[in-house]
Amino acid sequence: MKLTRRRFFAFLAGLPLIGLLSGISLRLAGKTLEPTPACDDHDEPTPPQTEGPYFTPNSPERSNLREKGLKGTVLVLTGQVLNTDCKPVSRALLDWWHCDDAGHYDNEGFTLRGHHFTDKLGNFRLETIVPGLYPGRTRHLHVKVQAPGKPILTTQLYFPDEPGNRRDGIFKPVLVMDVKQTASQMQAGYTFVLKA
Ligand SMILES: [Fe+2]
User: Fold this and answer.
1) How far is the CA of 25 from the centre of ligand 1 (A)?
2) Domain encompassing residue 33
3) Per the record, which residues fall in region Disordered (predicted)?
4) 86 CA distance to ligand 1 middle (Å)
5) Which of 44, 66, 90, 148 has fewest C-beta within 10 Å?
């Protein structure tokens, strides 16, 4: 059996001392430091998903899809694009589309559609609204992600604790965002991993 990085680190994590050093917050000078995300958490490429029927090419370049008159909870999604060598991918394209609060896609125009690029460290920030629901699907965002000169990854992102996740045949747990709900908005995080 091939010993992947994940399996190797899983093995190490079984050793008490290494587990203590790698997996637990370190208390240093009275401050608790969050553990550095391990590279081996991101060594599997993000899986592709169906594009579905509602993609429109040539979306406007923007990282804020909110517009006057759009109802719904504000969603701020931040994250990073890495490759399978754990290197950040700068200038990666992210092209988003999703339905509105009432579950409708804008198939004539570009409402709730837009593309932008990661910064030098592979980071991105999208501001939009939480998509509504439409028959047959759980709550989701559509996205195409592409490193410069590389193939396009078409996939979808999901929300945790959605009753529809269990009933949706396309849903994948690995595509669920980390989500935190504040009083005024939903904050979400996701790390995409592209084949190096
Ligand atoms: Fe959809």
Assistant:
1) 38
2) 1-42
3) 35-63
4) 29
5) 148
Ligand 1 centre to CA of 104 (Å) is: 9
At 7 the pLDDT is 40
Q: What is the pLDDT of residues 115-135, one digit of tens each?
A: 999 999 999 999 999 999 999
pLDDT value for 6: 42
Query: Separation of 51 CA from ligand 1 center, angstroms?
Result: 8
Residues 4/43, Cβ–Cβ less than 8 Å = yes
* Amino acid of residue 155: T
Q: Assess whether 7 and 91 both reside in one domain.
A: no
Question: Separation of 100 CA from ligand 1 center, angstroms?
Answer: 10
Distance of CA 36 to the CA centre of its chain: 19
Structure confidence at residue 43 (pLDDT) = 73
Domain match, 108 and 71 both: yes
Q: Are residues 18 and 92 both part of a single domain?
A: no
Tell me how far the alpha carbon of residue 132 lies from the centroid of ligand 1, in angstroms: 10
Residues 69 and 95 in one domain: yes
- For position 163, which CATH number holds? 2.60.130.10
